[in-house]
Amino acid sequence: MSFLGPERETLERLLPGLDKQLAEVPLLELETREGPGIEMFRKAGGPGLVIPTAYNGVGATAVEAVRATRALATRSPSVAIATTMHQFSVASLVALAKASSSFEWMLLDGVAVDGRLVASGFAEGRAGQGILSPTLTARRDGDVLRLSGAKRPCSLSRSMDLLTASVAIPEPDGSVKLGVAMIPAQSEGIRIEPFWSSWVLAGAQSDAVILDDVEVHPDLIVDLGTGLDGELDDLQTIGFVWFELLVTACYLGIAAGLVERVLLAGRGSVEDRARLATTIEGASLMLDGAASNLDAGDGSNDGLGRSLVVRFAVAEMVGTAVRGAVEALGGMAFVSSSEVAYLAAATHAIAFHPPSRHSVAGAMVEWFGGRPLVMS
After folding, report:
1. pLDDT reported for residue 374
2. CA-based nearest residue to 105, from 57, 69, 161
3. Which tops the pLDDT comparison, 25 or 182?
4. Which CATH architecture group holds 232-368?
5. Per residue in 236-257, pLDDT tens?
6. Rounded distance, CA 306 to CA 160, Å?
C-alpha cells in the first residue's frame, strides 16, 4: 500500500481522469476564484458521485465518498470544500427521496445526467439550528411562492445550477410548514455579492447568495410537513452525519497532502516521516470506520455522536500532522514557495465549520453519560 494509494485509487475509479487533471494545474491557480477545478469536477461526473445508480449517478458509498474527498483535497482544498457542500446537499436529497413519494428522484436524475452543481442553503449544523431549520422565508403569490433570504457564505455561489434550501411556508390558517426548495440559480431575484475576503480557500466561491422575492413553483418545493411519517428528525440527523464526515475528510486530505510532500522529499528523520504518515493513516482509518457505519445504516443519534467524536479527534491529529510536516519541510520550503504556508493555513478552517467544539461540549458530555445528543 502506498501513502494516499486507497484515496487516489477510489477517486480514479469513480471519476476517471480527474486526479491527473487537477495534478497538472499549479495549486495556487486552482485556489483562485477563477480556478478551473470546479469545472473539471463537473465534467468528470462529480455531481453524480453520491447519487445512486438507480438515478443514473455514480453510486459512491460513504466510505468511497470520504476517500475521494481526501484525494481531492490533496490536489485542491477549495475544490474539495466547494464540492463537499454539493455532496452534502445531494446526500440529503437522497435521504429525502427514500423517505417521501415526491419528485426528488427526478431532480437527482437531472443532477447526475446533466452535471448540475447544487449549492447548499441549509443551516449545515449551525448551533441552535437543525440541518432543515428554515433559512428562507416565503410568501404566497397566487399559485407560486416567493422566497427571500440570504446564505452567507455559500460555497459554489458562482458555479451553482441549483440552490437547495429549507424554507418556512405560510399556510392560510396562519400556521407555518417546513419545506425544502430547489431553486434554479438563474431565477430572477437571485444575486451574488462578495463576502469571502480571505485568499485562503477563495476557490470555493464562498460568497453571499441573496434571494429577493424569487418566484418558485410549488412543484420545486418538497413539503416536509406531511408524508414523512415522523422521519424528519432522522432525516436531519443523517444530513448532519454526512456533513461532519465529508468536512472532516477535506481537512484530513489537506494535511495528507502536506505529509506527502515530506515523504516524497525525504525530509526529517525516518522516525519523523513514519510518525507523520502514521498519524494521517490512523485518522483516515477512523474516518473510514465512521463512514462504514453510515453505509451500514447508522444514521442514528448515536451515529451523529460518533461522527462528532471523529471530527474533533481528527482535527487534533490534523493539527499535529501539519505542525510536524511544516517543521520537517523546513524554512527554505516555507519561504521559497507560498504553497506550504497556504496548505497549513487552510487546515485551520476545520475549526470554523459548525458545530464548534465549544458549542457542543455540554451536549457531548451528556451523550457520553448515556443521554441523547441534543445540539442547541
Report:
1. 84
2. 57
3. 25
4. Up-down Bundle (1.20)
5. 788 889 999 999 999 999 999 9
6. 31
Burial of 264 (0-12, 13-18, 19+ CB in 10 A): exposed
pLDDT at 132: 60
Tell me the C-alpha distance between 218 and 143, whole Å.
Answer: 7
Distance in angstroms (rounded) separating the CA atoms of residues 23 and 30: 10
**371 vs 46, 335, 362, 363, 364, CA distance in Å?**
39, 50, 11, 9, 9
DSSP for 256-267?
HHHHHHHHHHT-
Asked whether residue 327 carries a pLDDT value surpassing 50, the answer given is yes
Give the strand pairing for 144-154 and 118-120.
unpaired
> Looking at residue 228, what is its pLDDT?
39
List the CATH code of the domain at 119-223. Answer: 2.40.110.10
CATH class in words for 5-114 = mainly alpha
Residues of the chain within CATH 2.40.110.10 domain(s) are 119-223
Q: Does the CA dihedral 285-289-292-294 come out positive or negative?
A: negative
* Cell 437522497 found at: 94
Residue count (the chain): 376
Q: Which helix (H) or strand (E) element contains residue 201? A: none
pLDDT single digits (tens) 49-58: 999 999 999 9
Q: Which helix (H) or strand (E) holds 281?
A: helix 270-295
Distances (CA, A) of 230 to 21, 97, 224: 45, 15, 10
| Tens digits of residue pLDDT in 81-103 | 999 999 999 998 898 888 766 67
pLDDT of residue 330 exceeding 50, the answer is yes
Secondary structure of residue 212 in the 3-state scheme: strand
Where does CATH 1.20.140.10 sit in the chain? Answer: 232-368
DSSP 8-76: HHHHHHHSTTHHHHHHTS-HHHHTSTT-SHHHHHHHTTGGGTTS-GGGTS----HHHHHHHHHHHHHH-
Q: Give the C-alpha separation, 351 to 247, whole Å.
A: 10
Alpha-carbon distances, residue 17 vs 10, 46, 142, 226, 315 (angstroms): 12, 11, 48, 43, 30
Q: 139, 221 in Cβ contact below 8 A?
A: no
The pLDDT score that the predictor gives to residue 230 is 39
Q: CA-to-CA distance for 258 and 3, rounded, in angstroms?
A: 12
